[in-house]
Amino acid sequence: MKKILSLVIITISLSSLLFAQSDKIHWRTVEEVAVLQETAPRKVLMDVYTTWCGPCKMIGPLLVELSEEYAKKVKIVKLNVDENNNTAIQYAVRSIPTLILFKDGQVQAQHIGAAAKGQLKQFIDSNL
Predict the structure, then answer these.
(1) 35-49, pLDDT tens digit by residue?
(2) Which CATH architecture has domain 16-126?
(3) Active site annotation includes 95
């Protein structure tokens, strides 16, 4: 299993433009993500989302903030489920948003649904 390294925005859309506010966010292709997964030096939090999902849009700005706060501990990445259906199937994503925390390329924890920033921090902190 490979690790994902940086915040990924697979498509350019109105909702994904929220993520362009941070210098911690990088635009990546699926192929680049696969290469980055192999070399991630820290834990990776993958947000599985779609552009039409209201709760996904709600947590988007929070993930930008968290990507800056946790920059030395966790890389936060985004994966558009509509464009990467096979990856969603691989990780048994049944609802969005789904946050999947990886350690050494393996799934360590999963959170389903939108949450407040404090709840997201608690999820990350409890799995560091």
Answers:
(1) 555 556 678 888 988
(2) 3-Layer(aba) Sandwich (3.40)
(3) no
